[in-house]
Design goal:
- There is one protein chain.
- With 120 residues, the protein is an all-alpha fold.
- It has a single domain (6-117), classed as de novo design (two linked rop proteins) (Up-down Bundle), CATH 1.20.1440.60.
- The protein contains 4 helices and no strands.
- The chain has helices at 6-28, 33-54, 59-85, 95-117.
- Helix 1 packs antiparallel against helix 4 and helix 2 (33-54) runs antiparallel to helix 3 (59-85).
- It starts with 5 loop residues before the first helix and ends with a helix.
C-alpha cells in the first residue's frame, strides 16, 4: 500500500509521457542528442522518484525522494525552457507542460512541508 493517491501517480506518469513527447519533437528539429538525453533523464526521473516515494520505508525516506523530485522538476523546467528559447520546439507548445511542472512543484513542496511538520 503506497503513501500517494493513485490520481497523483497517474498525473506524474502523464507528465513523464509528455516530456518524452517533447524529446521526440526536439529530435526531429535536430536538437543536440545530449540535450534530448538530459530532458528525458530529468523528466522521467520525476516519475521514478515519485514512485519511489510512494513506497518509502520511512518519513525521512519519503521526504528525501520528494526532495529529489523537486530538483528534477526544476531541471526539467530549465531544459524545456532552453529548447523553447532555441526554437527546437514551437513557441507556446511547452506552456501547458511548464504549467504542469509548476503545479507538480507546488504539490510536492506542500507534501514535503507537511511531512516535516508532522514528523515527531
Amino acid at each position: 500500500m503506497g503513501r500517494l493517491q493513485d490520481g497523483f501517480l497517474v498525473r506524474v506518469e502523464a507528465f513523464c509521457d509528455r516530456v518524452l513527447d517533447v524529446t521526440e519533437a526536439a529530435a526531429l528539429a535536430r536538437c543536440p542528442r545530449r540535450l534530448i538525453e538530459q530532458i528525458a533523464a530529468a523528466g522521467t526521473s520525476v516519475g521514478a522518484n515519485v514512485f519511489e516515494a510512494d513506497e518509502a520505508m520511512s518519513r525521512a525516506d519519503f521526504t528525501k525522494s520528494l526532495s529529489i523530485v523537486m530538483k528534477e522538476l526544476n531541471e526539467t523546467r530549465f531544459w524545456l525552457r532552453l529548447v523553447e528559447r532555441r526554437g527546437w520546439v514551437a513557441p507556446g507548445r511547452l506552456d501547458p507542460l511548464l504549467t504542469e511542472a509548476d503545479e507538480l512543484r507546488r504539490i510536492v513542496g506542500t507534501m514535503i512541508v507537511r511531512t516535516r511538520q508532522n514528523t515527531p
